[in-house]
Each structure stands twice: as C-alpha cells, then as structure tokens.
Design a protein that fits this description.
heterodimer; A: about 700 residues; alpha+beta; 7-stranded antiparallel sheet; about 15% strand; flat
C-alpha cells in the first residue's frame, strides 16, 4: 500500500521522509552496487598505495578484493561476523600499541581504517553496509589528502569521485526501489545513447567547473604556518648540519622541490637553456667540520629591510653593469628551514617581501613561514664567471676567512695528502684544480653508503672505499683545500634539474639535491667549484618515454603551480588579474568597437545566421516550437503573419480566403500541412524527407502580387 | 484539484555526511593551508551544490494535481491519483508518489501516478503528508512537492444481497429479453466505478484505451424518486442499512434506471440526486451520515423505501 490509513482518525497519510529513506535499508544488495563499493574501496587503497606507505599490506588486501569482485556478494551471516569483530578489536589494539612508535599517526589511522574497510566489504549485505564502506573509504582518501605528499593523488581522486557518484546514483535508485511497487530503473533511459552521453559529459564539465571555481574562490586565511610532517621529512637535508654518516635518503626522492621558469621568451632558446641547466641553486654553507659532520659554526644573522628597494634584494654591486641577464621565476615549496635558493651568478632577487633574513655566508632566509609555496624572481647573468686568480699567500686571514681556514677535524693522513698535492703550487686556482683532478681520478660517484666504522668518513672515502656521494666529494675537497691554506666551505643546494620542453620550466626534485664547494679568491670572492664527477647517464630511455615523462612533468608543473602551491597571495593576485584583464578587454572592446574589422565580423555573422536572426526577431521560434523551422522560414516571408494559436491548416484557410494565395495552391498547401503533421507528430518520421519535400512545395507557393 | 506546488528539499543521510566532511575539511584546510584538503573540500561542496541544483530543478515548475476518486467504498481497494504535468519544457526523472514510480517524464508530457489505499470503515477521510518526491540525481538530497491536504469520501461497503433478491423477478425478465440479442443494446458508455463488471464489452474495450460498458435498451420503468428515513434506526442497524442502501443504489445504477434519491451533498442541503450522474454526492452523503432529524421530501410521487424490509 502506498499510504497509511488511520481509520480511527479518518486519515490517509503519505509515507514520511524517514520512512521513505529507511525503507530500503535492510534490503539485500545486487551485484552491481556490491562491485561498485568494491571499486570504491580499491581506489581508496590505490590512493594509499600512491603515498608509498603500507604497500605490503595493500598488496595483501588485493586478493580478497579480487575474490569478492568475482563472487559479487558478501559472505553470508554466520561465523564471519564474530571473527570480524575480533579482528577489528585486534587492529585497534595494534594501532594503539604502535602509536608512540616511529610510524606517523596518520599512517596508523589509514592502516586501521583499511583493515576495517576490508572486513566491511566481506559483510557487505545491505544499504547500511554500503554507507559504512563509503564513509570508511572517504576517511582513507581524506587521510591521504592530509598527508599531502605526492602528485599521483589527484589522478586517483578523479576516478574515486566518479565512482562515488555512481554509488550515490545507485543508492538514489535503491531508495526509490524500497518504496515503489512499480519497476524502478536506477539509470532512467531517455533518448539515444549519444544524448545520454552528451548529458553526462555536460554534467561532468559543469561539476569540474564548479569544483575548480570553488577551489579558487574559497577564501584562504593565513595559516598557522605549520609545514606538513611529510614536507619536513622530505626537506630535512637543509638543516643546520650536514652529516656524511647518514645514508643519502634524499638522493632518489622524486618529490618536486621547486620549479624554475624563465620569464622571457628570449631565454627559451636551447643554447641558453643548456647553459642555465648547468647552474646550481645555492642554499646554505657550512664551516665547522668534525668527524664526518658539518655545522654552520658561528654565524651572524640580521634582517634586511627591503621596503625601500621595492622588495628587491641586490646580490652584486649595481655599479658594475651586467650584460645578458635573464630573469627566472622560482616557485619554491615550503622548506624547513625556510631558505631562499639563489641561482649561481644571480644579480638581484625580486622577493616582494618587506624583510629578509641574511647570514654572514650570504645565506638568505624567509622570515615568516607561510603555507603553500613561495614565488620570487632572480636575475641571472648568463656569461661565465671571470675568476681572477691570486697567490695563496695573498689570502687575508680575517673574520670572513678565518673559520674557513680551520684545519680542525682534518686527519694527519689527509693533511699529508694535501701537502703532496700543494707542493710546487702557489696559486689558489692551481691548487683547486689539482685537488679536484685528484678526487675525480681516484674516486667514483656512488649513492651507496659503506660502513666506515670508527674511521673518519672522508679518510675512508679517499683512501679506502674510493666511492661516495656529492657530499663526500665536496667535504674531501673543502678539507684538502683548507689543508692547503685555501679558504673553502661546502655548499648545500640543488642542481637545476630537468628541463621540461612542454611546460617550459626546470623541474627541481629532491633527487637533485647537491653539495659543492665555494673557494675564496681575494679578488673575486667566493667562487663555486663542483668536484663531483658527472654520473653516467643511462641514456634516458626512448623518445616515447621521454615524451611521456615530459607530459607527466608538465602535469606536475601545472598541479604544483595552480593547485598545490595556490595560497591566499595567489588568490589575491588572481582576483587582481581577472579584474585587470576584464577591464582591459572591456576597454579594448569599447576602443575597437568602431574599427573596420569588427564591422566586417558583425556583417559576416549577420549573413551567416540571417535566417535564425530573422526568425528570432519575428519571435517565431519561441511561440510555436512544434512547427518545423523550414515552414517558419517560409511563413515569415508572407505579408500576413500567423497567429501563435493558429495551426498551419487554419492559417492556410485564411490565406486562401483572403486571397493572399491563389486557390491553385490549395493542394500544395494541404500537402504541406500533411508534411508538418508527419514531422511534428509521427513517431520515427523522416525529418529530412519532410523538410526537403516541404521546401520544394513551398518554393512553388507564392503570394499574389499587390497583397499587403 | 489544481494546486500550487510547495517544494521542499532536505539533505539525505549521505548528503549530511558529505556536508559534514566538506565543512570539517575546510576548517582543516584553513588551519594547515593544505591545498589537497581545499581541493577535496571544494569537490564535496561542488557535488552538493550541483546535486542541490539538479534536485531542485527536477521538481520545480511542475503542475501537480491530486485526483481523489469520485467515490470509493470501505473495505475495497481504491486509488489516489496524482497528475504531474511538465510545462517548462524539460525532462524530469525518478518521480514517485506513494508506491508508484515513473523513471522519466519527457519534456512537456504528463504522467498520472497512483497509489492504493483501503479503509476499514466509511467516513470522510482527510489526506495528509501526500507528496511527489524524488531522490534524483544522486542520494544527497531528498526533494518533494508537498500536496495540500484534501478529503476523500469513503462510502459504506455495498451489500448487494437484498437488492439483487428484490429485483430478481424483473431482472430475470430483463435477462430473458436481452439474451443473445446484441441489437437490443442501444448504447455503450465508459466504465465508471461501481458499474457491473460483467457488462464490460471486452471486444470493444480491447481496441480502446478504456473499458466500455453495454447499456441495455430495456426501459425498466419511469423515473423513481426514493427516500430513506434513517432517523429511527439504532447505530448498529444504521451501518447495516447504509451498506444495503449502497448496494441497492449501485444495483439500480447498473440497471441504468432513472432513480433519484433524496440525499444531502457536500453542502449539506437535501435535494434529489440521480444515481446515474450524482453518485459521488450520494456516496458522500452515505459516507458522512451520522444520524439526526430527517427532512421529508416534498411531492407525491416519492417512495419511502421500507428499511426494515431492506435489512432482512
């Protein structure tokens, strides 16, 4: 029964909202929704997989999901339910037990939720169970979003959202099915497949548009400035210390740290890009060495007021003119500590900030931490640095060089090697060249970390293992040069990364982290030298793989620039840009309105759409939408117009009666009426035939001359 | 009756969960500046907004007309109908009324949805919480057009036992006259509720969209004016008597005899009502009759039906 009858109070009551919603809750599911829910869970697991955590567990979860997918229904109630209860308690206990361990809390949460979700999938029998599975999968996806670690997440998010839509669509039909006695179709068919597909695509486009609009228009507030744990972990190499004893955890990390994008078109030429690609992005330096560990030592830090200089920070003396300067935009992820990475031979930074932190070694820091990313411009000189060599004896021992001449931590064996290398040389450049040549000849580049026991890591690197990373090469060179009385310091930063020819930017990943050495020349200042030999390139794969990699990096670039690093400043800038663009376009339109090109364009549009414009002007299209257009085109040519309520047959009678059209056309008019009826009301009528035949007939029917 | 739809929309359980998550994520995103949380939050908000828009638009600008039955009887299955017409030129999906369901309503088309009900006793029943509803497009919003309350007159269950026995002699004569002579049927009329289903002409009805009933050419006599003096009856006798009266009147109607009954319509003023054309008002009178003083009809050619005989 569709209604509830209360005979006592003489009431016929419809079902309440709660009754309608609750009607299908306990009904058994069909295979489609079961498999959709499984897909939802699988996509949530895929999102977790993309983070790199819990991969073993996720791979173990896959066979049960595949089995359930094949089975098409959950397990029957019985022994499984109490077992599932016990398993959930065990999973909860395990998560609580490990909460103080090294595994991040969010990963524990995901692990626990994943186990519960799998158990839920096994007992997926009713709509309530589907709701439970949906909520659990949402929790997993949200936890992955909160981890904020990679760019694969959006690729998983899209199909997940689509699947969620399908599940919700199905539940909508299921609710109707719970109430209705009639047959309910979850997917109400309407029209052709092409029409349905078009409707779906339009809805999808509308959804994406609203989604992006909301994303960009939701106001951002200044956050508390807390970088995510994942972000901190990725960038922990840039701290106040540099340790050779740690395994190079950053070397093969594909996480993107920054994008370097040439601003001007002239910078995009291959030769300039090649030269820019050889540059380094300087982070910070170290001065004190002890047992394989570098520290910053005593450095002064002060704040520089950039307000008087329009937010710009000059890096070289402005009086010396620089030629061939190129501007690079650096889009930098939030790093910890918040360093400003500066390209080699940068002359000026346009930071757009009121203050900046500066240290003795020209390490630059952002003062305020912000969420998202930083953007700044660097003007870079392309010409090679001209170094004026000096004798070692000419190096002054003062406050800026004293700590970099310290031989503390240098073993005797290393000092002896330095003396051998320095013998017979007086100039700084020669000693540097000799030391680099020795290192590159004797040692090879390797990311593997050997166990050096109690030996000094540098001594072990040079004399025993003879293989090491850039940190080993840089440390060895810096110590050798110090032992040769040449001021030297290791520098941490990044190489320029890979050039993306599609997106036109350099992608700097964590794997591009690099360490090199700065050597002091009395007449040229601190000059960078890289002792690390070039690693052998594996050929870079095929053209297709390189192209796909380029596309992937482009996607990453857009994601990084327009989604990941979008913050309140970007939002304000975006609003300003929209207003400016709209204003410019409006101004341009007004200014150019009377130009010949616009007039011609309007003329072409008017000619091309003259029929439709005329129909529109006559109001024919809206007033009688069942009348074919080919007939409307003919009737507006007549001196007498048809009333909106008048059918063509009645109109023809009036035309004949008033003598607008001669009686010789009566038969043709009747045939036209039949064609209109067929086109408008007959199912499956051949519209093309009706149109062509109708036009042919109407062409012969002319109004009498002189009739108005 | 034509009504102006009063549209309501509310969040479903899934919608409430999604809204909570969207707001929660927005707070989390504001606090951490995590753009992925902004992205997911805005995704949920976009889904909710679009779903709200499509749900609302699916039922807006519909003409909804409740069609109560002309008359119905206690203990019998009856239907409340709801005529839904689209006048805005766009297709609608997943429409439901009671336990009836329509997957689609093409642009500019009309659909009649019906749902059954059965009452145990006669009376004037009020409708309440009737609604045209839809969960389209996804299970985030529950949209409904609330139909204003109306009333339905439910007459007493017709008891034909006495009526058929009374007219058995004349009926037999009629049957004898018309038996095997199709030419003696001079008219076919649309089937109306209460008509004798054995008189449905299936040959014609099968080729039509509705049922046709044979109307006999036999003139069972000139028009009769009947009245029932119910005032002296006790409450137990009254119910039985009303059932018998209902049966008698329907029987007479099926015989297409010109019978008029002294009864009160919805305006509560007594007048002569035809069993052919005013059956709805007669049923209303019998449904709502609660005893009380009786007004004797004017005129000499009226028949006072012997109720004691009717109740035997």
């Amino acid at each position: 029964m569709g209604f509830v009858v209360d005979n006592k109070n003489f009431l016929i009551t419809g079902k309440s909202r709660a009754e309608i919603r609750g009607a299908p809750t306990g009904k058994p599911l069909d295979r489609i929704i079961f498999r959709l829910a499984l897909c939802l869970a699988a996509l949530a697991f895929l999102a977790v997989y993309s983070t790199g955590f819990l991969r073993g567990m996720l791979l173990a979860l896959m066979p049960p999901i595949v089995y359930l997918f094949w089975r098409g229904q959950g397990l029957k109630p019985g022994i499984f339910d109490p077992l599932a209860g016990i398993a959930s308690v065990v999973a909860l206990g395990s998560a609580l037990y490990h909460r103080s361990g090294p595994v991040p809390g969010v990963v524990l949460l995901i692990e626990f939720t994943s186990v519960i979700l799998l158990l839920q999938l096994f007992k997926l029998r009713t709509l309530r169970d589907v709701n439970g599975a949906m909520i659990l999968s949402l929790m997993i996806v949200l936890a992955v979003a909160a981890m904020n670690v990679n760019f694969i997440f959006p690729l998983v998010l899209m199909p997940y959202i689509l699947n969620l839509f399908l599940v919700l669509r199905w539940i909508s039909g299921f609710r109707h099915r719970g109430v209705a006695s009639a047959n309910v179709s979850v997917w109400p068919g309407m029209g052709s497949l092409r029409r349905q597909l078009a409707g779906f695509l339009v809805s999808l486009a509308l959804f994406v548009f609203v989604w992006l609009a909301l994303f960009y228009f939701i106001p951002r507030t200044e956050s508390l400035g807390l970088a995510s744990e994942a972000s901190k972990r990725r960038l922990q190499g840039f701290s106040d210390t540099l340790s050779l004893s740690e395994i190079g955890l950053l070397e093969d990390n594909p996480a993107v740290v920054m994008r370097v994008k040439p601003v001007e078109e002239r910078t995009m030429s291959p030769s300039i890009i090649r030269r820019l690609g050889a540059r380094y992005l300087r982070g910070t330096t170290f001065s004190a060495y002890k047992s394989g560990r570098w520290e910053k030592g005593r450095t002064r830090r002060w704040f520089t007021d950039l307000r008087r200089n329009m937010g710009n920070f000059p890096l070289v003396d402005k009086k010396s003119p620089q030629r061939d300067t190129h501007v690079l935009e650096i889009i930098l992820e939030n790093t910890e500590p918040p360093l400003v990475f500066v390209p080699d031979q940068a002359t000026e930074l346009a930071l757009g900030l009121p203050f900046i932190g500066v240290e003795d070694d020209r390490t630059l820091y952002f003062i305020n931490r912000v969420s998202g990313s930083r953007r700044y411009l660097a003007s870079v000189v392309l010409n090679p640095l001209e170094v004026r060599d000096s004798a070692v004896a000419a190096i002054p021992v003062n406050r800026s060089t004293r700590e970099f001449l310290s031989t503390a931590g240098i073993s005797d064996r290393l000092a002896q090697l330095a003396q051998v290398l320095a013998s017979g040389t007086e100039n700084i450049a020669v000693r540097v060249e000799k030391a680099i040549a020795f290192l590159q000849r004797q040692c090879v580049y390797s990311l593997s970390q050997a166990d050096f026991g109690t030996t000094d890591p540098v001594e072990f690197f040079i004399f025993e293992s003879k293989e090491g990373s850039c940190e080993h090469f840089a440390t060895a060179l810096a110590l050798l040069l110090r032992a040769m009385q040449v001021p030297a310091r290791p520098v941490s930063g990044y190489s320029m990364g890979d050039w993306n020819d599609v997106g036109k930017f350099f992608t700097v990943r964590q794997g591009h982290a690099h360490t090199w050495v700065e050597v002091y020349f009395p007449d040229s200042g601190w000059v960078p030298f890289d002792p690390t030999p070039v690693a052998e390139d594996g050929g870079g794969g095929s053209e297709i793989s390189r192209f796909l990699l380029s596309l992937w990096e482009t996607y990453e670039g857009y994601w990084f620039s327009y989604v990941y690093s979008f913050d309140n400043r970007s939002q304000v800038l975006g609003f300003r840009r929209i207003i400016t663009t709209m204003g410019d376009n409006l101004r341009g339109l007004i200014q150019n309105f009377f130009r010949v090109e616009y007039a011609l364009l309007c003329l072409v549009v008017a000619v091309a759409f003259r029929r439709r414009l005329r129909l529109f002007a006559c109001g024919v299209v809206r007033s009688s939408n069942w009348i074919p257009q080919w007939y409307s085109e003919w009737e507006i040519e007549l001196p007498v117009s048809r009333n909106p309520a008048e059918t063509p047959a009645e109109f023809h009678e009036r035309l004949l009666r008033d003598g607008v059209i001669g009686s010789e056309s009566r038969a043709a008019l009747a045939a036209v009426v039949r064609l209109i009826d067929e086109a408008a009301f007959k199912a499956g009528a051949d519209q093309v035939f009706c149109r062509d035949r109708g036009r042919e007939l109407l062409k012969k029917i002319k109004p009498r001359k002189g009739v108005h | 009756m034509l009504i102006k739809p009063r549209q309501r929309i509310s969040l479903s359980a899934s919608g409430k969960i999604l809204l909570f998550l969207a707001v929660f994520l927005l707070f989390a995103a504001q606090n951490t500046g995590n753009n992925l949380l902004y992205l997911v939050s805005s995704c949920f908000f976009a889904g909710l907004l679009l779903s709200l828009f499509f749900s609302w638009r699916n039922l807006s600008e519909l003409t909804v007309e409740l069609l109560p039955p002309d008359f119905c009887f206690a203990g019998q299955r009856s239907f409340l109908r709801c005529r839904v017409i689209d006048r805005s030129g766009r297709a609608r999906y997943s429409l439901a009324f009671g336990d009836d369901y329509s997957a689609t309503l093409p642009a500019g088309a009309m659909v009649v949805l019906k749902a059954a009900f059965t009452t145990a006793q006669r009376g004037r029943y009020h409708t309440s919480q009737l609604k045209l509803f839809s969960c389209y497009p996804v299970d985030l919003f529950f949209t409904r057009v609330e139909i204003p309350d109306a009333w339905v007159a439910v007459g007493p269950t017709p008891d034909f036992s006495r009526a058929r026995a009374d007219s058995a002699d004349t009926e037999g004569a009629v049957q004898k006259q018309v038996s095997g002579k199709e030419g003696d049927y001079w008219m076919q009329s649309h089937y109306r509720e209460g008509d004798d289903s054995s008189l449905i002409n299936w040959k014609i009805s099968a080729r039509s969209t509705q049922e046709w009933v044979l109307v006999k050419s036999i003139n069972a006599g000139s028009s009769r004016r009947l009245y029932f003096d119910l005032a002296p009856l006790s409450s137990e006798q009254l119910e039985l008597c009303l059932r018998r009266i209902m049966g008698l009147l329907l029987h007479l109607r099926n015989l297409h005899t010109e019978v008029y009954v002294w009864a009160a319509g919805p305006e509560k003023s007594y007048s002569w009502l035809s069993v052919k054309s005013d059956m709805a008002q007669i049923v209303f009178w019998l449904a709502c009759y609660e005893g009380g003083s009786f007004i004797t009809p004017p005129g000499d050619d009226v028949e006072n039906v012997d109720l004691q005989k009717l109740m035997v």
